[in-house]
Amino acid sequence: MAGGKIVIFSAPSGAGKTTIVHEMLKIKEFNLAFSISATSRKPRPGEKNGVDYYFISAQEFKKKIDNNEFIEWVEVYKNQYYGTLRSEVERLFEMGKNVIFDVDVIGGLNIKKAFPDRSLAIFVKPPSIEELRKRLLKRGTETEESLQKRLKRAEFEMSLADKFDVIIVNDDLQKAIDQTRNILAGFLLD
Ligand code: ADP
Ligand code: 5GP
Q: Which of 1, 80, 98, 105 is the most buried (most CB within 10 A)?
């Protein structure tokens, strides 16, 4: 697969990675495009099919697994599948883009393994699990059940932080954005 460089963002849900990724996509000289994942979870209010995710049924998702259409996929939460489609990454590379991924920790480490010589894997770390809980509550997108699922998985995800190339602690958002911009400038603009 020909193409540009790869930047992977992983973090526990609520750590702020979507916010940081959106800021990086605004920086024109980075020439980044977002890899739209497929998922079997339902869209949140405001999320659009083909923009935030390709929303498909669990049945369709499993068919794509069988057809070997994914570079990587993970059942992040019970019955909620997420995965990176080969066709998506090929589409963005053909456009001459560097590709940015927002994936769970296992997916992030697997993408790094698939593209070892041209990827940078960044872990976004919340200041604490308690702060993560507050952010998820403030975002207002989770039910009590999905909040608990996310916090439970967060502890496992935090334990894998050291396997990433870089850890950004997202305490003060502006500082985290500035730090991320500097790191990406070093990686993408050399
Ligand atoms: P993720 O993509 O990692 O699940 P989001 O980017 O959706 O996380 O951020 C979760 C919530 O926390 C959002 O409401 C966002 O506005 C907020 N947030 C992000 N960074 C910070 C920060 N440094 N301090 C306080 N709130 C933050
Ligand atoms: P959310 O439901 O909050 O959008 O995402 C839940 C988790 O799934 C997040 O950690 C997000 O990064 C991860 N995720 C999104 N897309 C993918 C993907 O294509 N592959 C993997 N492995 N995880 C993904």
A: 105
Å from CA of 84 to ligand 2 middle: 9
Per-residue pLDDT tens digits for 123-170: 999 999 999 999 999 999 899 999 999 999 999 999 999 999 999 999
Q: Which residues line ligand 2 (CB under 6 A)?
A: 13, 37, 41, 72, 74, 76, 82-84, 102-104, 106-107
Residue 1 lies in a domain: no
Residue 21 belongs to a domain with what CATH number?
Answer: 3.40.50.300
Closest CA to 170 of 159, 158, 160: 158
Range of the domain at 107: 6-188
Residues composing the chain: 190
Closest CA to 124 of 83, 84, 183: 183
Task: Round to whole Å and give the CA distance between 32 and 24.
Answer: 8
Question: In the chain, how many domains are there?
Answer: 1
Say what the pTM is.
Answer: 0.94
Q: How many CA atoms lie within 13 A of 72 on its CB side?
A: 18
- Closest residue CA from atom 9 of ligand 1: 16
Cα 9 to averaged position of ligand 1 atoms, centre (Å): 14
